[in-house]
Amino acid sequence: MAFAVVLSQHVQAAEIEPQENFDSVEERRIENSIIEERANIRKEREYISLREKELKTLEDSVDKKLAEMDNKLEELRQQQKKIEALLAVKTEEEKKRTLELAKIYEKMSPDKAATSLSGLDQKLAADLLASMKVKAAAKILDQISKQKATELSTTFSTLQLE
Length: 162
What we know:
There is one protein chain. This protein has one domain (23-157). 85% of the residues lie in helices and 0% in strands. It is mainly alpha-helical. It has helices spanning 2-14, 25-107, 110-118, 122-131, 134-143, 146-157.
């Protein structure tokens, strides 16, 4: 940009009115060449100026898009935190209800609890057994079929931490 300004000042200072009387054909050819070069330089300056404006517009557009993306990213992070908080509350509530249900099964007779546990989802049944006192869980497992007791024991021993 600075080069264009210096070049512009230099060309303007060097501009000479076209001479009408030439001593030779060579002088006329040189004069015409100089005039053409000046016109070319002006065109190039205009083109460069136009390109600079286009680049500035693009740069502004990119900056605006980046700012929008940053805002969206921040909104997504806030949403993620809300979801994580809700999930934590849900998980705690599920644990609480599982403990309450385990207490209910502990108070049932072992044969009725075994029948009920046999019909439950295997993970839930294993969670319930894990939440019970060992003695009550053992009595219930004793009443369940051998295959179901094996499945529950396997699930119980491989419980994943959540």
